[in-house]
Design goal:
about 250 residues, 2 domains, five-stranded mixed β-sheet, Heat Shock Protein 90, alpha+beta, about 65% helix
Length: about 250
């Protein structure tokens, strides 16, 4: 075999290698795109399921609590028509109406905290944390430094993320002490959360978030995406750290 033949075989081998590399890269990219699309689909489905669960919860509360209260009011009013305005039936109806109004208000606050619009995110978070600390089971230290003016949708998104993180930390990590503070620059707002429970690191978070029953974590990821924000989980000196970075 002459030199030209060797050169031709070498060129052919190089071409085959290049084609193989290109094919591998294209196949790998397509595989990654498929995986990414599948994960995006899982997150979207989780968000839809979370909304459906919330609708079902509200429907249950309306039917079981509010509906029962209003039915009792109706019965008491029928009796009050016979007994008069100062009767026990009339007074009981009045109490039930007050309880029903209070129940509806609580449901409304759970859907969208009206306090954010009136007193701001910082004081709303303080009120939320106070609900846990009054039990004396967990201590939450919140260092409420001044926050920049935030659009309502961003403030609500941050509130929901913190709310979900607190619920998960108390329920799953069994923390007894939580510290929260935030720092702000012109470009970003950062929330720092530490706790003494059984937390997770970033690797575990990225593994758990795609598990079927990790609805809470999926909700956090979806809200982070809306805010173009990111979250990081870490552990240092027997304490767990959560950092949320929100661009402004």
């Amino acid at each position: 075999m002459n030199a030209n033949a060797y050169i031709a075989l070498g060129i052919l081998a190089m071409l085959m290698l290049v084609v193989s590399i290109v094919f591998f890269v294209v196949y790998h990219q397509r595989s990654m795109i498929t995986i990414y699309q599948q994960k995006e689909k899982e997150l979207t489905e989780a968000a839809i399921q979370a909304e459906e669960n919330e609708r079902n919860r509200i429907a249950g509360e309306l039917h079981d609590d509010v509906g029962a209260m209003l039915a009792s009011v109706k019965l008491n009013f029928h009796q009050a028509e016979e007994d008069g305005a100062g009767s026990e039936a009339f007074n009981q109806s009045h109490r039930l109406i007050e309880e029903t109004i209070d129940k509806v208000r609580k449901m409304s606050r759970s859907l969208q905290p009206a306090m954010i619009q009136h007193i701001g995110l910082s004081k709303t978070l303080r009120a939320f944390f106070d609900m846990f600390t009054v039990s004396n089971v967990i201590a939450i230290h919140y260092e409420a430094t001044p926050l920049p003016d935030l659009p309502a949708n961003i403030a609500l998104g941050i509130y929901r993320i913190i709310q979900e993180l607190m619920n998960n930390t108390i329920k799953h990590a069994h923390a007894t002490q939580i510290s929260i503070y935030h720092t702000a620059t012109i470009e970003q707002l950062i929330f720092h959360i530490t706790h003494n429970g059984d937390g997770i690191n970033q690797q575990l978070f990225e593994e758990y978030v795609y598990q079927k029953d990790a609805t809470g974590l999926k909700n956090i990821v979806n809200r982070l995406k809306v805010l173009n924000a990111c979250i990081n989980f870490d552990k240092k000196n027997e304490e767990y750290y959560i950092t949320i970075q929100i661009p402004l």
